[in-house]
């Protein structure tokens, strides 16, 4: 609604009709028509029975998937949603069961090593179900040339993500994310529409800055990368770097010396660690490799940002601002809060970590069973605690210097030049 009104007002300012109130409705219809392309019949044009039958056929095919064997590459989604249900969040059991079958089917079709449920992102239309997978061929980023090279097979692109508007529909693999897309996503705040091909910007200049390099498909991938890096948690000590590997960054493996702690210890922020590394200001998790200098030249000194490696405790996360609190004395809250549920079970209590920087991100740990799960259920927007203010456009370029006027030619010099031209014409036979 805000984008539509902004475009209509912008059109009124450009056209300046004599009676703006009378022309408002017609201009509004023109703006709507500009964004509507009826290349295909919409779902509302299909008969209700035909649409219902199509969904039924898709769901029936999904329930033909063989999930009788235990597959370590596909987690028990029903069990994980049971952990989160103690905090009052999660998916219904019917939806979780269908999601488990869809994950099993995707793993078999794509030949993936591992599949995880990232979360459900709410939109103004149909929601996005996002899956995380490893062992797949990456889809190159659609972004153009970038001054900062993208990460390939590591950092924000160490795995691939798949998305669908329904658990019974096919999942589409999202392209790798580029640093420029990550940086641009940090400067805008926009609800998703549920259409991967929808533009992130519109034609009205007041609503399209800063421009995002890509469509909603790329914007979704950038937000998923930011959420994963900030909210995927694991109990401290459960994972460790593989010191036997010399290459950087070192791979992360299960720690052989890990022993689950007491449930009450999970109420401390130091008992939780980030599974992934933090994002730098350039839109990567690591600084790009330095270019090799040519022969005889000294290497160029480049100031690099300090990297934030994986497995850092969440106690060092920046505090989140409380929404719309004007008093500075009460204007901050911890980035995470922790709570124990099912305390009657003592050792089998469920510890839930709730993110306030990314509302909708939760992490669950059952230390006695040595199980951990992460999920995101929200709109894919970061909470800043204050009303969003769009980034100001760059300053207008100053006018260039006025060109210097050439000096006046004296009459004698002008006559001399004309005489030389006449003599040249006579010599060439033009005179």
Could you please describe the fold and organization of this structure?
By secondary structure, the protein is an alpha+beta fold. It has helices at residues 2-15, 20-35, 48-62, 77-85, 93-110, 179-186, 216-231, 411-427; strands at 114-121, 128-134, 160-164, 172-173, 233-235, 239-241, 252-254, 272-274, 320-321, 332-333, 336-341, 350-355, 361-366, 371-378. The protein is extended, with a radius of gyration of 30 Å. The relative contact order is 0.11.
Fold topology:
Layout (H helix, E strand, L loop, with lengths): L1 H14 L4 H16 L12 H15 L14 H9 L7 H18 L3 E8 L6 E7 L25 E5 L7 E2 L5 H8 L29 H16 L1 E3 L3 E3 L10 E3 L17 E3 L45 E2 L10 E2 L2 E6 L8 E6 L5 E6 L4 E8 L32 H17 L4
What form results from the Cα inertia axes?
Answer: extended
What's the multimeric state? single chain
Number of H- or I-type helical stretches: 8
- Structural class comes to alpha+beta
Number of strands: 14
Helix content: 25-40%
What portion of residues belong to β-strands? 5-15%
Strand order of the largest sheet: 4-3-2-1-14-13-12-11
- Average of per-residue pLDDT values: 85
Q: What is the ordering of alpha helices and beta strands? A: HHHHHEEEEHHEEEEEEEEEEH
Straight-line distance between termini: 76 Å
The major sheet is characterized as:
8 strands, mixed
Q: What is Rg? A: 30 Å
